[in-house]
Amino acid sequence: MRPALLDPLFASLASLPGIGPKTGELFAKLLGHESIDDCRVIDLVFHLPHSLIDRRNQPGIMHAPQGAIVTVSGRVDRHQPPPPGKSSVPYRVFLHDDTGELALTFFRAKGDWLTKSLPVDEQVIVSGKVDWFNGRASMVHPDFMVKASEAATMPLVEPVYGLTAGLSPRTLRKAVEAAVERVPPLPEWIDGPLVARQGFPAASNAFSALHHPCDTLDLDLQAPARRRLAYDEFLAGQISLALVRQTLRRVAGRPVTATGALSEPVLAALPFALTGSQQTAIAEVKADMATDQRMLRLLQGDVGSGKTAVALMAMLAAVESGGQAVLMAPTEILARQHHATLSKMAEPAGVTLDVLTGRTKGRERDQILERIESGETNIVVGTHALFQDNVVYRDLALAVVDEQHRFGVHQRLRLTAKGISPHMLVMTATPIPRTLVLAAFGDMDVSKLTEKPAGRKPIQTVIMPQERTGEIVERLRTAISEGKKGYWICPLVEETEESDLMSVEERHATLAGVFGNAVGLVHGRMSGPQKDEAMLAFKSGETRLLVATTVVEVGVDVPDATIMVIEHAERFGLAQLHQLRGRVGRGDGASSCILLYKGPLSENGRARLGILRETEDGFRIAEEDLKLRGEGELLGTRQSGTPGFLVASIEAHGDLLEIARKEAAYTLEKDPQLESERGQAIRTLLYLYRRDEAIRFLRAG
Ligand code: ADP
Ligand code: MG
Q1: How close is the Cα of 589 to the center of ligand 1, in Å?
Q2: How far apart are CA 145 and CA 81, in angstroms?
Q3: Domain that includes residue 311, residue range
């Protein structure tokens, strides 16, 4: 049981003040969850700032540089409301200091609110970004406005967090602040002498320090608070891995002997020949599964490299030897798609597949569970619903996990805790360095798909300003009339007040005006069946242009789609753009990707998009992305350390990983059941970093 101490941190994120249904969706997106119901307060505590705004800069109005964030102390001169009936004209309030005049500019503002907060003749302090135009200074929607008498209420140094489109920095900051306040004093789980040697602050103080930086040094990866949390994260990981290993050693695997009875007809019916690296990967997997040691293998391959076919061959081998296999996908859409694709591929072998997700309910669900338990079903595709307690497998020989970045060691543990020990194949498109694989998974073998299937043509990528949208629509008109298909990606579901982005719904409406029924729509707020229907219509060709949000980011496979338009490309991370672009170029038709940006682009922004034009190599893109990321201007980037970790960075904190590894081994040797006072504290640590699945093994003995 989780210690009650941590309850406030594991309360639903929606329990924080200021998070409603609408902002909830944005928070979910920011934190990489599908819905707000999956977000906990702790997720926000781990959302660390990447930089800070220093409001101590008070150069005087005349000396404020263009675009700089400054604080101005001045006297209010006059108000200039918009003329009656013209709400599109902004409301302006003029103030001055010794050096000059500043116009505060408000769109759709309430006049009485402004007269109250900025009374004429009052001495006020405002802070925000200064814009110069025709020799006049203005500040649009200041971040802060206080009367001089209340100056102390304005924070002079403010942390800046990674955002997602539509979420205002202020809303996010308030929520983070509330989340951090819920961090209780935590028991010390690190050995005293080590704490002293490293100069670590207490864990709860470390959280507070990172969210209340005084200057940029406090945000450095080597700041004591950051190092403390990085160590904690490594320690939690190493302890849980050690617990897993302890247990796995006791359970033998189930040897799988492939006969070829099923895979051969399937192979023969495939419309393509396997690539060399697919064949090698399949051979490696089969060799692993043939022994009674449990396979734990990572299959790395860039988008489009054909991981699914490898998975199918592995699953068929499991079925040939009389066992069952599951494939787990990170989302509902992907699970359904995999089910459709794999069912079709497996047809020649006469193997039928079931699909099980959170959406599978009632009678249908009961029937599927029955078929799984009786062994009538040999292959099940689904989401994490596959591993819930009430799912009983007759003889699970292999579990394949697709796009693992959302899944960790937890699922493995859950399975083992159920008393089954299938072979595991984890598939990912994310390049993960060897050290990281070790840290995240412990010992794991790796197969790589290094070649793309033959016949793929390079995707032609172009970068264009949004102003040329009309031209793109014309090009699409021609392409669609020639029978081609494409995606049109928008960052937002619907218009929000704070954003000038085109929403997916609005874009759908304008494109439907041009293309009529040929345009489909899919986004995260649609119900599951609605999403399926939209995907199916696009796949079958009933619709030829699919307007979508990033719900199609991972794994969606419609090989005859050849055009990808991404609106507001500057808002996306490079890896994300690479994944999105990977939705085209999957068949033998020539494909193109059009990245539309809203200018002006910063130099860094231009460089980032340029990389995509230069290369399709996911590994290189990830590398370059990391290099450029330093500037922290990337919207929607979680300021996390290494992928898979919340705060730790293998590169920056490698020394700590080594210490954590040793400490974990030593701790478990002395206190294998984690019963001592420190052992109890370590249990708390495991819960805090969500490594608590490992605790089950302690009870199981
Ligand atoms: P990913 O590695 O991104 O999961 P998929 O498994 O979805 O890639 O495969 C991408 C596309 O390439 C699919 O349409 C699949 O049918 C096709 N494909 C897979 N292997 C080959 C191959 N050896 N030759 C040609 N096409 C292939
Ligand atoms: Mg895939």
Answers
A1: 14
A2: 18
A3: 253-449
